[in-house]
Amino acid sequence: MTLTTPRPRQEVAALADQLLAAWLKREGRDEPPPGTAGLPAERLRLGERVLLDRDFGELREVPGGYLRRRLRTPAPHGTDQLTLTVASAGPDGPSWVRLEAEQLASAPGLRAGGRVPVPELARQLLPLLDASDGPVRIGDTPRVVRPAGVEALIDELCDPDRTLPVVVASLPPATTTAAWLEDTGRQLTRQLTGLAALYLLDHEALPLFNVALEYHKVYGGAVRTYLPEVDPASRADGGRHPVLPRHRIEEDVRRAAALLAREPGRLAAELPLPAQLAAVPVYQPPAEPSPEAAGAAHRSVDRAERQARADELQRVRHSLHRSRRRERMLLAVGEEQRTALRRANAQVQVLSGRLCTARPSDGSPVSFGELVGRFGEFPLLEFTGDQKEALALDGQCDGTGWARLTWEGLTALQEYAAAAVRGEAHGDFKQWCEHTPDGCHRFPPRKAVRGESRTVESHTKWKRERMLPVPECVDSSRRAFMGAHLRIGGGRTAPRLHYLDDCSGSGRIYVGYIGLHLTNTRTN
Q1: 0.90 exceeded by the pTM?
Q2: β pairing state of 448-449 and 485-487
C-alpha cells in the first residue's frame, strides 16, 4: 500500500515499531531493542530465521529523509518479507508511507506460496495514520454514504489526483446497512486494506448515485470498483470499472473477496512511486566481517546494480501508466465516434420518416424506427428488448398513431421515474397516471396496467413470453417477469409496451418489449 499521512516520519516509524514488537512478542519471538541513533543501518536477529533490518538516511536527488523497517520471518515454502518505508521532505511535515508484503522462495528457481495475504501490520497501522490518497480518505472499513454524501463521493471518483481504486457497494433490497456490514462487508473487503477507499451506499443514496452516474451505476447488492480517472459522461469508460454481482458474492464470499482484491492489487504493484519514495535508496545491510577493501568494493558494486534495477522498474511503471492513459483516451475517442454515428443514423431515420408523412406538431416520432433511435432522450428508461418487434409495427395500418401513443407513454414513464428516484412519486405508475401532477404529460390511466391476469401468470408458456431481458445486477438470470404494461391503441389485441419499474433499486425503468400483443386468452 502507498498512502500519505499528516504524521511526521519519526512518529509513523515509532507506531510501526510498537506494533511489530507486540506482534513478535505474541509469536514468541525476541522483542527488538530501541533504535540506535548513531547507526544508519542495523540488522537484528530475533530468533531462528527472524531478521529485522532498520535504517534511515537522506533521500537521493530531492530534499528530505526516510526511515525503513524490513522484517523477515520463516514461512512454509520460503520466507515472508514485510518492508515499511516512510519518507518526507522534512522531519515535521506530512509523510509518504509504503508497506510491501512479499513471499520469497527458499531457493533460486523455486516459486513461493500463493497469494500474499494482507499483513496484520497493515490492519493495525492504517486506522492510526489518518491516511489518504490525494483527496480520498483511506480507511480499513466501508464508510456508509447517505443522500447528503453522494455528491462528495462522485467528486472523489472523478478527482484527477486520485491514484487508488474506490470500491462502492450497494445494499441488496430489504437488507439493512448494519446487517450488510456485519454479515458481508467485513469478509468481502478484508483483502482491500490499504489498497482502496471503501464505501457503502444506503437505500436512499443509491438511486441518487445511479441517476448522476448513468454509465457507471451499481445496484442490486453488487459491488463496483472505480479505477482512477472516471469519466462520467463516457459510456465506453463505464466498461473499464469492473462489477462484482450479488450472486457471485452470495455463492462464495471468500472467493468474491479474492476477485474484488485482484484489480486493486495489480494497480498497487504497477503504479509509479511518488517522487519522495522513489528517491529512497535501495537497502544496504550492515557490513559483515570481511577483508575491508574487497568487501567494500563488492558491496558498492552490488548496491549500484540493485539501485539501477530499482530505477529501471520505476521507469517501466511510468511507461506502463502512460500507455494505459493513452489506451483510455483512444477508447473515449472511439466511443465519441460511435455516438456520432448513432446520432447520424437516427437523423437519417427522422428524415426518412418525413418523406412518408408530416411530423405531428408536438414533435412525436412518426415511426417506431424513429422512436427506437430517439430512446436516448429518456435518461431514466432503458430499452432491453428486441428492436425487431417494435420496428415490425411500422408495417401495420395504424403504425404512426401507435408510435405517437407509445412516445406519450414513454414520456410519462420518464417523468414518473424522475419523481420516483427523488421519493416524490407517491405510488406506482398507475397512480401517477390517475393523479398526474400539474405540468407533467398525462397518459390515460385505463391504458396503464399494473400486471397480467392470474390466468396469464399461471400459464407456463405465456409467463415465459413475459420473462424479458434486464441487466445482471437486477436479476442474476438476466430475465425478469414484466407483467406491468401499457396498452398501445384500442382493443385487447392491440400492441403492448411491457416494463419493469426498478426506481427503488437501480433508479431506472426497463422496457423489455414493444410490439404486437403477447399471447393470452384473446390471441392465437
Answers
A1: no
A2: antiparallel
